[in-house]
Amino acid sequence: MGTVTLDQAIDTAMQLPPAQQDMLLEILHSRRIEARRLQIANDARDSIAAYRTGQLKTQSAETVIAELRRALEDPE
């Protein structure tokens, strides 16, 4: 299958009857949610493995929040 541009995908979707357009939106939404869940699960699995091998250290919630705030204030 060749590469499809966003415009081509939209044009093709607009040729569908309204009910199928709605179905397509629901399918795309569900698939994006599932892809995000898998990404989160993989990230969690990697984080747990890093913690178990000593690559990550235990920190208090206050410390993590402070580090996040500093990172947001000084994005480099």
Task: Write a structural description.
Helix content is 75%, strand content 0%. By secondary structure, the chain is mainly α. It has one domain (17-73). The radius of gyration is 21 Å and the shape is elongated. The two termini are 40 Å apart. The model has no long low-confidence stretch (mean pLDDT 94).
How would you summarize this macromolecular structure in one to three sentences?
With 76 residues, the protein is mostly helical. Helices cover 75% and strands 0% of the residues.
Q: What key attributes describe this structure?
A:
mainly alpha, 3 helices, 76 residues
Number of domains: 1
Mean pLDDT: 94
The helical percent reads over 70%
N to C succession of SSEs: HHH
Structural class estimated from helices and strands: mainly alpha
The count of strands amounts to 0
Largest sheet properties: none
- β-strand percent reads under 5%
Gyration radius (Cα, Å) is 21 Å
Separation of termini? 40 Å
Q: Rough shape?
A: elongated
User: What's the total helix number?
Assistant: 3
Low-confidence regions: none
